[in-house]
Inverse folding.
C-alpha cells in the first residue's frame, strides 16, 4: 500500500460513504467531497515539511560531525588549563 492509498484510507475512515445509498445521493456526495478535501489538506501539509530520508540523514551526519570536531578542538585547547 503506497502513501496515497494510506491517506485515502484515513479520509475514508473519517468520512465514510453509505454503501446502501447510491453514489449520487447528497449524503455520499458530501462525504466524497469531504474525503477529497481531507486528502488534499493532508497531502499539502505533508508536502510543506517533507525532506527525503537521504537528505535528513546527510544533514544529521554533517551536524554530528561538526559537533564532534568542535568537541575535539575544545579537547585540544590547552589554554584553559
Amino acid at each position: 500500500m503506497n502513501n496515497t492509498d494510506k491517506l485515502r484510507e484515513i479520509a475514508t475512515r473519517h468520512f465514510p460513504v453509505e454503501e446502501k445509498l447510491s453514489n449520487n445521493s447528497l449524503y455520499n456526495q458530501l462525504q466524497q467531497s469531504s474525503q477529497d478535501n481531507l486528502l488534499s489538506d493532508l497531502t499539502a501539509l505533508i508536502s510543506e515539511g517533507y525532506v527525503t530520508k537521504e537528505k535528513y540523514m546527510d544533514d544529521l551526519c554533517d551536524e554530528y560531525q561538526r559537533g564532534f570536531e568542535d568537541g575535539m578542538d575544545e579537547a585540544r585547547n590547552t589554554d584553559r588549563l
